[in-house]
Specification:
Aminopeptidase, globular, alpha+beta, 8 strands
């Protein structure tokens, strides 16, 4: 079925250039490197991260986690950045489920235990949101559990718009107003979706 609207971004809009580094003060968002495997292993050994991702990770699995990111950038389906400073890797932030035609993507992140309490995730989220909107995306969203107060605080600090909680099984229609932000997708019963919508005024 043909679309009745023009795509927000054309194929190649992201992949025609190398995945960039993004800076936010002393925080640097850079593409993942093979040498980052120990940080990924350590992250998935942390009980707080493991609770929400429901898995541990070996060194080989960490390699398998890192290696696909460049291909996702080339295919414009996802983009992952290591959050770093002079001390090393602090965490990760990524764009997942990139949809160029709709100009939208989902954001995910985690922060290693030693880096918590330094506003690493909020600063990274602000920097990545700004970069995304500057490069043509119109909408990002976070899928976070209401049982994870830290993730909820990150969303609130970004002054994002929240989708209200919905009863299980509720699926509202999403029509042509989708790109304007007038409709909201249904949140998970145990969590919520948080919209970060570009101000077009």
């Amino acid at each position: 079925m043909p679309l009745l609207t023009s795509p927000v971004l054309s194929p190649g809009a992201l992949a025609r250039r190398p995945q960039p580094d993004i800076t936010a003060g002393d925080l640097r968002l850079r593409p993942w490197q093979p040498a980052d495997r120990p940080a990924v292993v350590a992250a998935y050994a942390d009980p707080a991260i493991r609770r929400w991702h429901c898995r541990a990770m070996t060194d080989d699995e960490a390699r398998g986690w890192i290696d696909p990111w460049p291909l996702r950038w080339q295919h414009e389906t996802g983009a992952g950045w290591a959050l770093t400073d002079a001390s090393g890797v602090l965490g990760q932030i990524s764009l997942r489920s990139i949809d160029l035609a709709e100009g939208q993507a989902e954001v995910s992140y985690w922060v290693l235990p030693a880096a918590r309490g330094r506003r690493v995730a909020p600063r990274a989220l602000v920097a990545l949101t700004a970069w995304s909107f500057e490069h043509g995306l119109h909408r990002l969203w976070l899928r976070h559990s209401t049982a994870n107060p830290t993730s909820c605080r990150v969303a609130r600090r970004r002054l994002a718009r929240h989708a209200p909680a919905r009863p299980p099984g509720h699926r509202p229609a999403i029509g042509p107003a989708r790109r304007t932000g007038k409709n909201r997708p249904a949140s998970l019963a145990e969590g919520r979706l948080t919209d970060l919508i570009r101000n077009r005024q």
